[in-house]
Amino acid sequence: MLPQTAAIVSLQDASPAKWAVLAATITLAALLSTCAYRVFLHPLHRYPGPTLHAISSLPRAIATILGREAELMLALHKQHGPVVRVGPNELSYVDPRAIKDIYGHRRAGGGPEFARDAAFFDPALNGAADILRVADGAAHARLRKALSHSFSDRALRNQAPLLKTHVAKLLANLGAARGAPVDLSAWFNAATFDIMADLTFSAPLGLLDGNTRWEDWVHAITAQPRGMTVARVLRGYAAVWWFLSLFVPRSMAAARRKVWDYAVTRVDARLAAGSDKPDLWAEMMARNEGMPVEEMHANAEVFMVAGTETTATMLSGLTWYLVTNPDKFEKLKREVREATPREEDVTVERLQGLKYLHACVEEGFRMYPPAAIGPPRVTPAEGAKICDGWVAGGQWASYRYPPNFTRPDEYIPERWLENKTGEFANDKREILQPFSYGPRNCIGKK
What we know:
Layout: H1 2-12, H2 16-41, H3 51-55, H4 58-65, H5 69-80, E1 83-87, E2 90-93, H6 97-103, E3 115-116, H7 137-147, H8 153-176, H9 184-201, H10 215-234, H11 238-245, H12 250-273, H13 282-286, H14 293-306, H15 309-323, H16 326-339, H17 348-352, H18 355-367, E4 377-378, E5 391-393, H19 395-400
Helix pairs in contact: 8-9, 9-15, 10-12, 12-14, 15-18
Cofactor: heme
GO molecular function: heme binding; iron ion binding; monooxygenase activity; oxidoreductase activity, acting on paired donors, with incorporation or reduction of molecular oxygen
């Protein structure tokens, strides 16, 4: 007892310097024990990957903020194989067999579905559920049922005249350049924003007509993905997130509010005035599929964010690969012109039957996916048989991983055509899921 008593007296009389040394010692011991646990005792310690990634999620966080996460994932998979531990509690998979297990229906196998990670998305400003960000499976199923008819083949055929109107304006603007250089990315953005606004609000923004009124609003939307990505990473470090939030410019919060307020205003105007256009709400209301107006506001914001820049980004990448592969471009032009010699021949049904066009688009998604990292899923509470832990599906890395595709860094649409005995016969085509997979795949895929 005497030594313990002496120790207590010693601490009571300790100087601030001794207290600081004691605190530093305890902190260091805690850090070392945490590192040792994660490297040697953690349930994922047997999976390959860099030791630093097993200890901390900071290396991946830095790569994400710098916009280099996809390249990092590919490098790790090339070094360590198809499954890599990329964080203390995270595994990345590029094996196509994992897609169904992670993203597909699990009831058939007796287990629950992998839930979408709620922390991956910022919720709607009004707190209402929407088709993209809601984590609850039952709520997602209800929303998908209400909106599914708006994204059906029948709806797409009804929307075709609207789409052709905006495409004609895009082509007219490009033709007016008369051979001068043009910023195709900007024009693709103008077209996708006009199309999605027409589908969501029954009124385009007029960007293809030269209307500059909504440029600030469009810029606010295009700036959102990067800001949301940085915020998602920093929220994983509570103290850092709290400290940095003290210095966040009001303009950033105002930009998010601007996007939201516009969506609310335009949806309310659409509901008040009515419309005979085949927009995204027409089918739902015709079938009396109930959806509270608050959820309509939240979904409208999602449609405008998810359906605009992503499409324009993919179109920009696809165009670049076509013009830098002139033989592929010429082959595609021949197929399209032979199938649609007149403008009125351009129909949804006819375009869907063009195999080489489909191959070019698929290869474009493989080489230049607009969402390079897939939304993570959380292992069910009772555990799952996939890596015994949380698995994040990386898209860009999967598409460039050599065991999955022959000549993975080359744009070769022919790999998507029937080719059971040729050079690309062993390509794992099923891993290409740019719209995700299973019950939560993108409702706007068509």
